[in-house]
Amino acid sequence: GLGGKLSLPGHNMKLGRGGIREIEFFTQTHQLIAGGRDASLRVRGTLDGLARLATAGWIPGDLRDALSDHYTAHRTVEHRLQMINDAQTHSLPQDDAGFDRLAAFMDTDADSLRADLTARLTQVHAMTEGFFAPDAQPATTADDWGSEVTARWPDYPALRSDRAAQIFRRLRPDILSRLAEAAKPDEALNTFDTFLAGLPAGVQLFALFEANPALTQLIVDICATAPALAQYLSRNAGVLDAVIAGDFFAPWPGTDALTKGIARAMDQTADFETAMNAARRWAREWHFRIGVHHLRGLIDAPAAGQHYADLAQAVIAAIWPIVCADFARRHGPLPGQGAVVLGMGSLGAGRLNAQSDVDLIVIYDADVWGNSDGPRPLPVRSYYARLTQALVTALQAPMADGKLYEVDMRLRPSGKQGPVATSWTAFRDYQQEEAWTWEHLALTRARPIAGARVLASGIEAFRRSLLKTKGGGGSVGADVSDMRARLAGAKPAQGIWDAKMGPGRLMDVELAAQTAALVTGSDLRDVPGQITAGVSGGWLSDDDGEVLMQAAALFWRLQAAGRLLTGGVLDPDALGEGGRRFVLRETGCDTMQELETAMTTAATAADRVITRRLKVGS
Fold first, then answer.
1. Is the whole-model pTM more than 0.90?
2. What secondary structure, in 3-state letters, does 337-404 show?
């Protein structure tokens, strides 16, 4: 009842239009939206809150200065009114005599006071009202566009509550207008429909959209480009909270900072289960951030691959000590010198995609004939086997907040039939005396990512020494040729657009790169580095190296794009126009036909190089 057109006589300086409460609500609502993840915003004072919001980038500095000045002026008028009336009042005088008296107390004249109050109240309302304007009408679309799709929406779980439906009615015109502007509006609308249908609830998310219009555009961009990411969002809508944080589009922080960040998130929990759920929430947000940065062109496929690998390493490095501590409470501290978690495969090489699992092995250094020292002691072998299983469970068990990673341990010594954890002595003996060529190839990408540092240094030194001695045998080429044939038979390409499988494609080139590292005794793990080592070591010619480099780069970009956009093998017809534009941007091609030709050319050339080199080396 205090709204409406501004009229100074009797105007309430606290609750009325442009008054103190509008500044306070503006400040406090921003704090509610962002203060859950930014502890610096959890302050009580309005002026302090405005200052913190500006520092964190939530409001511009000039808005902070203006609102702070108006707030101080409003409070000064309020105090003078209460002093004049000797009462808890917030209302301006009703007559000229009252304004004259107040003006004298404010060291000015009545006309100047009226002009100043009118200007300040009008400016405050203008500055804050847009933030709270639920009734603003966005651009509209054709009345019947998408009506067959939108007719289903009222029945979706996210729109069944009256509150959610009320908020969404205000959002709907803007959402439809933005979807209509997509390259393929009908495709974008259908993907948004799938996203909306998958949401279990809507009030919080829709309120977030209303307070942050940029989120609406982000959702539209994702729906117009990446159906798999939109589907992920419908199951994990909470990750959108991260977008409103001030650092969502900041530069990549690196593995050390990530490890500290997830450790802090888990440290704030009360027990092991809540710590694992906190880790899942934290990792989901960073995983989503990488996908958005890739989609928006802020990073390319090589950078995205490194970021996904950094994230996985940080998660495992932070969870490992928590798992060990929880296990030690029941069975005693880790026997001997402890254990090391090795990242293998793509994780060891430092390059994952949006759908990657993680390849791990665990090596421990302890007297295998002893027992642990705890309330429920275990034989050393059993201790480390069960500890490894506890790590796997911590990473891949479905919990309230989902899972972290699928774990693959088939690269452990003796393959999937071997023990899940291997003693340091047995590992050395096996690699030196019994391991097959494929197991030495796997070591070319092995990397310690968690555990006892001294043991990790020893394992890395052994790895480097072993690779220098195991690549010189004449059977390497024949062994790899046999492996290559087996892989081709077991995992044939799923069509022309399969970037991973098939002669001369990603897996084939990666196998050749590992072979180059083994033959030349290189300790490098990444694909470009291993190919370069093959050239410098004489196993590959300069031209051969260039062919493999080009194939590796092209097929990795396609693999990363496919996993992000659809979660599987690229299908140009299923991608949609937005997805096709993303793929072409990533690969530097102008048309899908040009890209198909480039794929065939690159694969054929790489296949020819690999086949020739393996024949020569066998």
1. no
2. CCEEEEEEHHHHHCCCCCCCCEEEEEEECCCCCCECCCCCCCEHHHHHHHHHHHHHHHHHCCECCECC
